[in-house]
Design goal:
Two copies of one chain form a homodimer. Chain A is mostly helical and about 230 residues long. Chain A has one domain (about 5-230): Four Helix Bundle (Hemerythrin (Met), subunit A) (Up-down Bundle). In chain A, about 75% of the residues lie in helices and about 0% in strands. Chain A has nine helices and no strands. The first copy, chain A, has helices spanning about 5-30, 40-45, 45-65, 75-110, 115-140, 145-175, 185-210, 220-225, 225-230. In chain A, α5 runs antiparallel to α6. The first copy, chain A, is globular. The interface between A and B is large, with 44 and 43 residues.
């Protein structure tokens, strides 16, 4: 099988799993949790899982692999840097909106913030993501960024990108927990968890395969060609 | 700073975080959960988190990075393959013992098995780990293994290795959840969760940095030198 065919099959699996995650998280919250609203009630809380899975998992994962599609390799890298940064910004905004949903709900229901492991890991993820996005913008899109800064930043950016995905998966799974129920909702929510993890592992698979790495042509990559191949 | 100094500092951080994970999980279960026993009671269950964190996280993470220490690069790769396989086998045995602890406890207390997302992800992790170990033994240690098989297996082995670590972190965090408590035990258990994730991210950092990759000298690596650099 040609490498690009194998890539597109894997990418199709990644897209299907991502869409299933969105479908499952939306159906779960609309069918069993009462639907959506933005009024400080539990219905506002329901936006939290939907926005976090959409932004911090599905959109983030897709944005992470945009450079890997072989059809993009003949196009200018700067175009795809902008697509990558744009999708990541959208993912970040959805995540921040997801945090607003839960903070508003806590405030309306007098529930304290940031008391659980889920919230600790989750807030670390979004802070790290914000830091990564700003640093990525400064290093890879600002024209005044130096080659030294870009080449130093690139392996850190690659590692932090994977770390954020690990953190977002762990924080998602830590909250999708129905240990004592055996009903349909519990099984459905657990299946969403499995789908989320499966999506993350496929994204890791795409990122790990160096044959699918965009050939290095631009200045910072020449300097860090070894580190970029991660 | 010389690359090897940076490696050993990062590795020291990895070892310290791993030891802290072991200390925290043991203290948590002995101080707040009543200690340990092997009699089908809740005290047998307490072995579960200790054995899983020891085997599937700390020992697994350390076994994954053994090839990275620069002092091993001048030594025979086969020696370090055996160290890697031996440590992984120990990690696998501890994990299986950790599963026995929880199945025995469920059996003694008439609790059904495999009903939660934690158990679904956890059992997938151990099954995948077993599969990975057997395949690794057949591919990289059996003398009759062909070069084609080794070179095909290597990128899969590298990806599955990372996938298992992601799964073990998510399954650990999914069970360390004290959402409604604000007491010292909850904070302590949550801190164990943060330590576990931090340990995992440092292991990912070591694995992601190609400067710390053992130079390829053996036969299968020549064929897959690009894929091995992951």
């Amino acid at each position: 099988m040609r490498p690009s065919v194998f890539f597109y099959l894997t990418y199709a699996l990644c897209v299907c799993l991502g869409l299933l995650c969105l479908l499952f998280v939306t159906y779960w919250n609309s069918h069993w949790r009462g639907g959506f609203s933005w009024d400080g009630s539990a219905l506002q809380f329901n936006w939290h899982p939907v926005l976090m899975v959409s932004g911090l998992v599905v959109l983030y994962g897709n944005a992470a692999v945009v450079y890997r599609a072989p059809f993009t390799w003949k196009q200018k890298k700067n175009t795809w840097k902008l697509v990558h940064a744009g999708l990541m910004l959208l993912a970040l905004l959805l995540s921040i909106l997801g945090l607003c949903a839960v903070f508003d709900f806590h405030s309306g229901s007098h529930i304290p913030d940031l008391y659980s492991l889920h919230s600790w890991v989750g807030i670390c993820t979004v802070v790290m993501f914000t830091f990564q996005w700003v640093l990525g913008l400064a290093g890879f899109l600002f024209p005044c960024s130096t080659t030294w800064f870009r080449s130093t930043l690139k392996p850190v950016h690659v590692w932090m990108g994977k770390a954020i995905l690990v953190l977002s998966l762990t924080s998602c799974i830590s909250e999708l927990k129905y240990p004592t129920d055996h009903n349909t909702e519990a099984k459905f929510a657990n299946s969403l968890g499995i789908l989320t993890v499966a999506f993350g592992l496929v994204v890791f698979g795409i990122l790990s395969r160096n044959k699918w790495q965009r050939p290095d042509t631009d200045s910072e990559s020449v300097h860090v060609s070894m580190d970029a191949r991660q």
